[in-house]
């Protein structure tokens, strides 16, 4: 997964700034009295109304949003600004999972709302939510599948409010959030908003997805974006052709067609792409829906290569058996996954272009890495990119390939087999290389 480039680091900075502002403000969730008009909330008629007597919560500045795919960050931010809240993390559940180690401590001290658009994000993916961060989700999440979306469910646990907002469209999610911004809402009971009934209007354009296949790839796109699908498929084939020169089995290892899922404008964060390895699906903003400040041909082919590497590596390991993907039980560390992705990008766009675009960012952690282990680096893309280039200089593509296909029981055994270096020797040789090449 990769959320990218010049804009990427700027918005991380912005988030940190906003976080700081929230911390400095030191505010607590305001629990105002507030009333709910019967027209706006369902279940308000008749006896045994589940909402009656429920404690209320009012969204405050210390509310953080965690968003899955298909949530428009711009419209959520507009709503957040009305209560002065600043924290927003998302683009996909995978993106959230990957960033939890960085923001965990901040999130624990904030109220958190998970926004889930079930048309673009599979609810079963919540099962992969990291165990140690479960407390950020409402407990008894499984019970919620009984309720018909759209709905929101918020509960107070461990002194903070943990909530989830489930909808089939961004509009449904937005409508629920808008209520939270305007008034107090019940805790401990799933609730929804029932607006008046209107006749549906004819669709201005088709909304069911279409698919187009070419070679090893399949594009899933919204009608009207056929030209984008054609373009992406051609780029993807081109990327595979370049990678095949280095990794002959690059496509045959992935047995099913790889899906390029093309998103409309505003569905993904700017400059952000990600891979769902189990389903071999790579997500991108469709080229004509993309803001050209972040996207160009080099961005697309580089990111196709990067995201493809995650699927390829996963299938390689499935085929090889032996060491698996779990870093806690002998699998590769995250810097290796992302470093391999960046190495694939480099193979496709060429060293010169790679250095011109990414040289500055990826050179940044050299000083840090001379003193600290790779696992401690905050930018796993940069640290990984450096480590893979070191491996390339030392053992070449063939050596890197040997790590990927190894039948050793752990990742570091595979590195040892391919390079002859033990872990301490690897660290030493890597630092010597960094010193020579900085
Ligand atoms: Zn990645």
Any idea of the CATH class of the largest domain?
Answer: Mainly Alpha
**What's the architecture of the largest domain in CATH terms?**
Orthogonal Bundle
Low-confidence stretches: 1-35
Can you list the strand order of the major beta sheet? 1-12-13-11-10-9
Number of helices: 12
- Overall geometric form: globular
H/E element order: EHEEHEHEEEHEEEHEEEHHHHHHH
What structural class results from the helix and strand content? alpha/beta
What is the mean pLDDT? 85
Radius of gyration, in Å, reads: 23 Å
CATH homologous superfamily of the largest domain?
A: Neutral Protease Domain 2
- Strand content range: 5-15%
- What's the CATH topology label of the largest domain? Neutral Protease, domain 2
Describe the 3D structure.
This protein has about 450 residues and is an alpha/beta fold. It has two domains: about 1-20 and about 55-185; about 210-435, Neutral Protease, domain 2 (Orthogonal Bundle). Helix content is about 45%, strand content about 15%. It has helices at about 5-25, 75-85, 95-110, 170-180, 225-245, 295-320, 335-350, 350-365, 365-370, 380-405, 410-420, 425-435, and strands at about 1-5, 55, 65, 90, 110-115, 150-155, 160-165, 185, 210-215, 215-220, 260-265, 270-275, 280-285. Strands 1-12-13-11-10-9 form a six-stranded mixed beta sheet, covered by helices on one side. A five-stranded mixed beta sheet has the order 4-3-5-7-6. Helix 2 (about 75-85) links the parallel strand 3 and strand 4. It starts with a strand and ends with a helix. Residues about 1-35 have low confidence and may be disordered.
């Amino acid at each position: 997964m990769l959320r990218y480039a010049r804009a990427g680091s700027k918005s991380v900075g912005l988030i940190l700034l906003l976080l700081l502002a929230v911390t400095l403000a030191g505010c607590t969730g305001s629990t105002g009295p507030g009333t709910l008009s019967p027209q706006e909330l369902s279940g308000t008629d008749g006896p045994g109304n589940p909402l009656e007597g429920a404690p209320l919560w009012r969204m405050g500045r210390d509310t953080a949003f965690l968003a899955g795919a298909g949530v428009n960050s711009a419209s959520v931010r507009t709503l957040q600004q009305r209560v002065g809240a600043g924290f927003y993390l998302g683009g996909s559940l995978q993106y959230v999972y990957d960033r939890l180690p960085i923001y965990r401590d901040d999130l624990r001290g904030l109220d958190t709302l998970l926004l889930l658009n079930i048309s673009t994000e599979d609810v079963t993916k919540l099962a992969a939510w990291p165990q140690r961060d479960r407390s950020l989700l409402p407990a008894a999440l499984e019970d919620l599948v009984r309720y018909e979306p759209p709905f929101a469910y918020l509960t107070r646990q461990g002194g903070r409010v943990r909530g989830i907002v489930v909808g089939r469209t961004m509009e449904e999610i937005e409508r629920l959030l808008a209520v939270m911004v305007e008034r107090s809402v019940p805790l401990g009971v799933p609730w929804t908003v029932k607006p008046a009934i209107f006749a549906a209007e004819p669709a201005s354009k088709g909304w069911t997805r279409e698919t187009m296949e070419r070679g090893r790839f399949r594009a899933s796109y919204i009608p009207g974006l056929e030209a984008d699908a054609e373009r992406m498929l051609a780029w993807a084939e081109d990327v595979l052709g370049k990678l095949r020169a280095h990794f002959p089995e690059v496509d045959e290892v992935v047995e099913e067609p790889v899906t390029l899922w093309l998103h409309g404008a505003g569905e993904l964060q700017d400059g952000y792409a990600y891979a769902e390895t189990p389903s071999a699906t790579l997500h991108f903003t469709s080229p004509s829906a993309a803001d050209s400040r972040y996207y160009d041909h080099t961005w697309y082919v580089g990111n196709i290569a990067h995201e493809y590497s995650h699927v390829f590596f996963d299938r390689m390991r499935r085929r090889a058996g032996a060491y698996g993907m779990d870093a806690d039980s002998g699998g590769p560390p995250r810097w290796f996954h992302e470093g391999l992705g960046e190495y694939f990008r480099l193979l496709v766009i060429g060293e010169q272009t790679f250095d011109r675009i990414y040289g500055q960012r990826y050179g940044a952690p050299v000083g840090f890495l001379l003193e600290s282990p790779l696992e401690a680096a905050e930018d796993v893309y940069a640290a990984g990119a450096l480590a893979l280039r070191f491996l390339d200089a030392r053992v070449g593509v063939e050596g890197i390939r040997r790590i990927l296909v190894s039948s050793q029981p752990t990742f570091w055994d595979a590195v040892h087999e391919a390079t002859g270096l033990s872990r301490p020797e690897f660290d030493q040789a890597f630092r010597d290389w960094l010193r020579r090449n900085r």
